[in-house]
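Quick one, tokens below:
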């Protein structure tokens, strides 16, 4: 059993436990009672004429263990927003990523840019939960869902006005995502089955995704050179987690990744 299988199994256990407290029908009714969203997450990416930055609040991961001993998540999110992030990714998976629904709820309340619930969606219940927590998007991973499940989950998202980031890793999964009607496809440069990282994966997969579908490169982005290569490959956005979480000054690191220093130097010499 891979770690991804374990994450998916644990997500099913979490959903079953949550349904004991709030039934599937009740959470659906609560979510539908809220104003319909305007697909703010994908709109934020489309608005950026260059490459959009989705910055992640992540305390730990299965591959690296605890990344941030101190985790002032609200301040981290505010720093990202102040530094020009387009969106924020918030881990809510509690066992291996040490995430929390409360992190998402509080961050969404305290920033004005859209947040995605980064979790292992295995049931539409989790999409309704995400809406109630203030998320503007959810993650759907091809490796743990069938094409029919992805189609059904996208339909739920559409009803709520949420964006669905459909994550793929190889050619077969890209085909599933496209055929399921994804408007936003993320290619994970980290293989979730063995955790190897290859940023070339995004560049190879980009040409398989129709140009009208937003393309997000996820994981393994370390520096401005990686961003440059992904920009040249046609990525619409990058999702950056560990690189930012390990930086002492996240605002400065994000500016560096965005190439702000180079632009400033260039203007200074004009």
């Amino acid at each position: 059993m891979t770690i991804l299988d374990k994450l998916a199994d644990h997500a099913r256990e979490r959903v079953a436990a949550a349904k004991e407290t709030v039934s599937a029908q009740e959470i659906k009714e609560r979510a539908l009672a809220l104003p319909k969203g305007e697909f703010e997450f994908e709109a934020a990416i489309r608005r950026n004429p260059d490459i959009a930055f989705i910055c992640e609040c992540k305390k730990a991961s299965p591959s690296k263990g605890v990344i941030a001993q101190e985790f002032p998540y609200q301040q981290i999110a505010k720093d990202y927003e102040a530094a020009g992030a387009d969106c924020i990714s918030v881990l809510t998976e509690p066992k291996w990523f040490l995430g929390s629904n409360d992190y998402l709820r509080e961050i969404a309340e305290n920033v004005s840019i859209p947040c995605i619930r980064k979790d292992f969606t295995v049931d539409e219940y989790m999409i309704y939960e995400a809406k109630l927590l203030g998320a503007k998007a959810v993650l759907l991973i091809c490796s743990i869902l069938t094409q029919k499940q992805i189609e059904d989950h996208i339909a739920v998202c559409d009803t709520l006005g949420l964006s669905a980031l459909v994550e793929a890793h190889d050619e077969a999964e890209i085909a599933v995502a496209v055929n399921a009607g994804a408007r936003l496809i993320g290619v994970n440069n980290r293989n979730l089955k063995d955790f190897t990282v290859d940023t070339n994966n995004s560049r190879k997969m980009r040409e398989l995704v129709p140009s009208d579908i937003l393309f997000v490169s996820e994981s393994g982005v370390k520096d401005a050179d990686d961003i440059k290569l992904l920009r040249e490959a046609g990525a619409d956005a990058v999702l950056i987690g560990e690189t930012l979480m390990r930086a002492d000054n996240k605002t400065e690191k994000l500016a560096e990744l965005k190439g702000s220093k180079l632009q400033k130097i260039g203007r200074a010499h004009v």
